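Exercise 7.
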Amino acid sequence: MGLTNTAAFMASCVAFVAVSKGLESHFARRRREAAERDRRA
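Solution. The predicted structure, written as tokens, is:
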């Protein structure tokens, strides 16, 4: 039982890290594009 809980916990941690990394790169790209637009304007 403890082993399954540990596996589930690790899987959710990995999923959380993957999602936050993906969102972080997505927002960083949008911020960079917005900054470039502001500089041009």
